[in-house]
Amino acid sequence: MSTDTNLLHQAPPGHLPGKQGSAPKASANPGRTPGEGRMAALLLSPTLLVLALVIAYPLISAIHQSLYRAESGLDADGFVTEGEAFVGLANYLDLFAGESGQRFLNAFGNTTFFTVTTVLLETVLGLALALAMNRAFKGRSFLRASILVPWAVPTAVSGLLWRWIFQSDGIANTLLGSEILWTAEGTASKVAVIVAEVWKTAPFIGLLVLAGMQIIPEEVYEAAKIDGAGWWRQLGSITLPLVKPTLLVAVLFRMLDALRMFDLPFVLIGPGKESVETLSMLAWDESNQLRYGSASAFAVVLFLYVAAVAIVFVKVLGADVTGARQLGAKRRERKAHRIQKAEATR
Amino acid sequence: MTISDLRGLAANPASGTGNPSSSPLNPKQKRTWRSYSVYVGLALIIAYCLAPFYWMIVSSLRRTADIFDNTLLPAPFSLENYAKVFDGSTMFGQALLNSLIVAGVTTVAALILGIFAAYAISRLNFRFKSVILGVIIATSMFPGISVVVPLLRFFTDLGWINTYQAMIIPNLSFAIPLAVWNLTTFMKQLPFDLEEAAMIDGCTKWQAFRKLLLPLAAPGVFTTAILTFIHSWNEFIIALSMINDPKIQTATVAISKFTGATEFQAPFGEQMAAGVIVTVPLVIMVLVFQRRIVEGLTAGAGK
Q1: How many Cα atoms are found within 13 Å in the side-chain-facing hemisphere of A284?
Q2: Of A37, A78, B95, B231, which sees the most CB atoms within 10 A?
Q3: pLDDT digits (tens, 9 = 90+) for A251-276
Q4: CA-CA distances (angstroms) from residue A264 to A257, A273, B125, B231, B303?
């Protein structure tokens, strides 16, 4: 079965009624054997164990470390001191005051700015790409291959590539007839990062949205045409609402990815540059200076930021990440139905 | 017609993949105008996607002397940069090998764990199933730096800095969720009936898994392997943080550290050549397996 259907969490045609009818019964049934649960635990435990080591442990350890600080923090030889003092929330309070606070707020602002601008541009461009590709019948496979190229280029390589393009005497300045120092500090370097990031990721959104578009049946458009709906009307009333679930998931993933942006500004512009320093880069730099306390505090803040965005998307906007929502809705529907029935009989 | 009506229609198409064929209602002259604009659009898309990559290839084939040329083809074609990349002083060959080892082991480990986990989630009934799947997917959203900072310290204490496992184990933090998710969506699509029939015929669950499900799931496993490999091959922040010995460095980190003889002039030609070498295996994979990759990407909607 095509994975496209899967993306929108619609069961394949024909399968839908039968499966929906029998699957919930099976899970509600106490016929779940104890052996099955044990087997599941056995099969899942290696995965959960590794995830505990590489996700849960780092998270707890980061929170723990963020409450400590090396004894002589700012000294050049601060890192040799053995002792670490418990400082409570001081590392967090420092985020909003003083010099390190300014650097943090700058990085926080950069991260937010890059996330909003790149994801916005990617979404618009990705939608346009998908609309164009949806019309294409010939050369589809060549198109698909070329659209995958930016996605496949490692971010570090794309950073190098765009640094070369944005050289002071590089091709970008030649084509634009300008003499902008793209890879130094300043607004130009922000633009360079955004251009490079959008280049790499817009095709990805395009691919996802295209998959969502391809399961919209042509009859819907035919009907709209007969009713006299123009292209824009069709886009606004059919295409966009129907690809919205796909688009929401794609945008969520892009946002989470953009929030942890590191490789691209690091390679394209360089570490420690004020105008492009993101939270990831700041935390990395701090841990490089062996200031694990503040590095951990930055990492925790970034984690909370990412989690907050994810929660907003899933809870408020209803991005259906696991496909569980569809099931939940069905369950609620059935429950409501049962209650109605019960009330009717009473 | 309301949206919910449309949804009902959308859920019930004649064929899932069927591309809407162009409408026969349109007169011919309109079609020619339409196809013309479509081709222009497609040319623009292809140029957008490929031009920067093309520029990298062209620049890598120039001599150092004319690296700043702006011709569309390298005027005297030269492999000078490629020779320099591999001349030994940069250890780039070693870096490629390291990348291969790290990405390869990560992929195999994530697949083994992922197949078991995905089987349990897609085929077994147990409590907290959706919670566990949710947790696994949520971990894929974990920012890399939040893994790196604490583990850097932990691995320093263990003496693991500059080892392969210091990259492979943190890599699993993104590789496992990716693998579990992709494999789960894939296995859920496979019909359960065959296995049930086999079990009625006396097969154990394990036999049904090994003899029926696994061969059926092979394409999904393969797709997952490609995606995981590409993600691990492109990994940067972990390798950058855990390794400072050029002998263990992976290729992505190695090329980011390429510096010329003088600080003043970066060796752009060499950097482009190295970039091409790092990217070419992926581009070949993309060309050969494009259909599968797109399937995998859209199924998991992941990263």
Answers
A1: 26
A2: B95
A3: 988 999 999 999 999 998 888 888 89
A4: 12, 13, 43, 15, 16
Looking up tokens 């010099």 gives A99
Number of domains making up chain B: 2
Do B95 and B66 fall into the same domain?
Answer: no
* Confidence label for A330 from pLDDT (cuts 50, 70 and 90): low
Quote the CA–CA distance of B229 and B234 in Å, as a whole number: 8
Q: Which residues of chain B have a CB within 8 Å of the CB of A204?
A: 297
Tell if the CB–CB gap between B19 and A215 is shorter than 8 Å.
no
Confirm or reject contact between A46 and chain B (CB < 8 A): yes
φ and ψ at residue A84, rounded to 5 degrees: -130, 130
Instruction: Look at residue B72 and tell me if it is in a domain.
Output: yes
The domain containing residue B62 runs over which residues?
19-81
Contact B208, B199 (CB under 8 A): yes
Whole-structure pTM over 0.90, yes or no? no
- Alpha-carbon Rg for chain A, nearest whole angstrom, is 25
| Residue of A7, A22, A54, A239 for testing the chain B interface, max B β-carbons within 10 Å | A54
CATH number at residue B157: 1.10.3720.10
Q: What is the DSSP letter of B302?
A: -
Does ipTM surpass 0.85 in this model?
no
Contact assignment for B16 to A215 by CB distance below 8 Å: yes
Residues from chain A that touch B14, judged by Cβ atoms under 8 A, are 13, 217
